[in-house]
Amino acid sequence: MLKTPALPEATADGAPASKVPVTGKFVLTMSCTERPGIVHSVTSFLYERGFNIEEHQQFDDGLRQTHHLRTAFSGPAHYSPETLAEEFAPIARRFDMKYDFHDETKKRILVMVSKFSHCLNDLIFRWRGGSLGGDLVLVVSNHETHRPMAEAAGLPFIHIPVSSDTKAAAERQLLELVDEHNIDLVVLARYMQVLSDDLCRALEGKAINIHHSFLPGFKGARPYHQAYDRGVKLVGATAHYVTADLDEGPIIEQEVIRVDHTYGPAALSTVGQDAEALALSRAVRWHCEHRVLPDQSSTVVFR
Question: Are residues 40 and 118 in the same domain?
Fold first, then answer.
C-alpha cells in the first residue's frame, strides 16, 4: 500500500510553512529641514529592499520649517538597525537628517520611587499585562517603603539613601546600576529628590519624570492643599524628559481631570494620583515604542 507523502504544514493564507519568509520588524524615526522628496526617498528605500510599511506618520512644522517622520515596517530579517542605518546614510546626508533605526528589542527600564506608590504600582501592573512597551528591570528608592511591592513583582529592589552629604555618591551608584543592568530608560515615578545637573546631563533623553500640574501651578509642599485653598477646577499631571531645569524638560504627555468645589485635599490628591499614573504610563510606552521625537525644547509625539 502506497503512503501519501506528508505535506508541509500550511499557514493561515495557505502557503507552505517551509516557504514562509522570516521577517523582522523595525521602526525608522527621522527629523530634518522641510523640503520636497523626503517621503519619496524613505519609501523608495524601503520598497527596494523588500520591506512592507505597516504604519507611517509624519508632521511638517510650518513654524520651524522642520519635517518629522515615524515609519514602522517589516521585511527581510537578515537586516539589522545597524545595516539599515549604514545603507540609509547617503539619503540622510542628502537631506541632513537626524535619524535612527530601531528593532523589536524592548527597552530596559529602571524605576526610581520614594514614598508614593501609585505610579510604581501602575507601571508594574501594565508591565505584567504586556502593555507598557518596555521591560521593568530594577527598582531604586531612597526609602525601604516599597521593597515588598517590587520584590512581589519579581523585581530587584535597591535602597540608596540620599542626604546632602551622600548625594554625589548616591548618584554615582545610580549610574553604575544603569551601566550594570544595560538600562535604556530611567523613570522617576514620584522620586522626591532633585537630581544634580551632572546626572541630568548623563541621562539626557533617557529619563522621564512625572509631576502634578495645576492651573495655576502650585510648587513646594502640600500642593493639593494649595489647590483646595484656591478652588481649582482642573487637576492635572505632566510627564516630561528630565533636564537640569527642574520640571521644565520637553513635555511628552499631560492628563487633566475636571473637579469641583466638593473635592477636599484628600479627594484632589486621589484624582491627581490617577492623572499622574495615566500620563506617566503613556509617556513611558510612547518612548519605548519610539513615538517621541525631540524638537528643540519640545517634542513631536506620534500616538
Answer: no
**pLDDT tens per residue across span 108-153:** 999 999 999 999 999 999 999 999 999 999 999 999 999 999 999 9
Closest CA to 195 of 158, 240, 247, 156: 247
Size of the chain, expressed as the number of residues it contains: 303
Residue 6 in any domain: the answer is no
pLDDT digits (tens, 9 = 90+) for 270-295: 999 999 999 999 999 999 999 999 99
- Would you say 238 and 231 are in contact if contact means Cβ atoms under 8 Å apart? no
In a domain, 72, yes or no: yes
Instruction: Give the strand order in the sheet containing 134-141.
Output: 157-159, 134-141, 107-113, 185-188, 207-212, 234-241, 251-258
Positions marked active-site: 247
pTM of the complete model: 0.90
Q: 53: domain range?
A: 17-102
116 and 229 in a single domain? The answer is yes
Q: Would residue 187 count as lying in a domain? A: yes
Pairwise CA distance, residues 107 & 105, whole Å: 7
Contact present, 279 and 239 (Cβ < 8 Å) = yes
